[in-house]
Amino acid sequence: MAEQVGGDPRRQTTAGRWQVLGAPRGMLFYQVKCIVEDPGWHGPTPETGHRVFLGRAGTAQVRLNGRLNLTDATSMWLTRPGDEMATSHPHGDGDVYSCLEFDPQVLAERPDTEQWLHRRGWWGSADERLDLEHRMLVAHCRRGIDPFEVSERLHRFLGRLLSRTPLGAGEPGVEIERAVGRRPATLAAHRRLADQAREVLIGSDFQLGLTEVAEQLGCSPHHLSRVFQRVTGQSLTAYRNRLRVRSVLTVLADGDGPPLSEVAAAHGFADQAHLTRVFREQVGHPPARLRRLFTAGNADVDAA
Question: What gap in Å lies between CA 232 and CA 66, rounded to an integer?
Fold first, then answer.
């Protein structure tokens, strides 16, 4: 991943195509598409500022303060000065993420400022509503909005992001220990299996069935389903749907694209009606309406 230092994302440890989306006072919002020249580990590099990363597509490995995490389109994490982050791209090019940097003064008026700014970096998952707001923000900034609106949208987005993220998010091993309550070796093995399942699903273009995924991992569908639920707190079906919705949102954000019936087939949905039903359940809006919102310069998802 591109390593942004001192307010300049062009200073990188790994090559990437980057684009600044907005830079109001005290904040910097940019996107990066990684170009992998060396799939090995880069870093660790000490963090010099406060940053929130939000996954948009693809997958990579991130070691934050010694803990290994697999990134995907549902991931978000925060780093603060003094944290150490290393990255690796064993699956090659293509992962895309957004990053929002902010000065400590930006949070000065929040009652929980000290808790956010003086804790170690955390790892979490963006819910569907927050992910949609993030993608709308990227689309509007890329299309071109005036600096005043950029500033307002970024401040509002950061406030919502922090308000929806529990202060305990990302504490190492807590969620697995509570769910499984087994030996450290078993916990580690279960975490590896869950991460491997995520990697297979991400790289499968959503065309593999549960049995095929389990076969690739050398276990039974029942065991895989049970372990994944214990480790992640969600079913494989729920996780797969979250990935599919985010992938379709990427297509919708490009504006004019293939018909929704083709988009549904390409992402493993039974038909367009199935796609629409899952979208309504996940983000509260049908895909046709979201496509219009992405292309409307002054549209806001809150008004949809």
Answer: 20
> Is residue 208 domain-shared with residue 242, that is, in the same domain?
no
Q: List the CATH number of the domain containing 257.
A: 1.10.10.60
Regarding whether 217 and 290 lie in a shared domain, the answer is: no
| Residue 75 one-letter amino acid | S
Q: Which two tokens stand for residue 80?
A: 């603060």
On whether the CB atoms of residues 121 and 80 are closer than 8 A, the answer is yes
Helix 184-203 to helix 236-253 angle, to the nearest 10 degrees? 40
Number of domains comprising the chain: 3
CB 71, CB 55: distance < 8 Å: yes
Handedness of CA 121, 66, 34, 54 (dihedral sign): negative
C-alpha to C-alpha distance for 300 and 63, rounded to whole angstroms:
35
Same domain, yes or no, for 30 and 158? Answer: yes
pTM reported for the whole predicted model: 0.81
- For 69-92, write each residue's pLDDT tens digit: 999 999 999 898 889 999 988 776
Decide if 248 contacts 257 (C-beta within 8 A). Answer: no
